[in-house]
Amino acid sequence: MTASVTVRVPAKVNVQLAVGGLRPDGFHDLANVFLAVGLYDEITVAPADELRVTCTGPDAGQVPLDRTNLAARAALALAERHGRDSRVHLHIDKDIPVAGGMAGGSADGAGALLACDALWGTGASREELLEICAELGSDVPFSLVGGAALGRGRGELLTALEVGGTFHWVFAVADGGLSTPAVYAECDRLREASGTGAGIADIPDPEASAALLDALRTGDAAALAAAVSNDLQAAAVSLRPSLSATLAAGTEAGALAAMVSGSGPTTAFLVTDETEATKVADALRASGTCRAVRVTSGPAAGATVLRG
Ligand code: C5P
Question: Any known ligand binding at 105?
Answer without folding.
Answer: yes
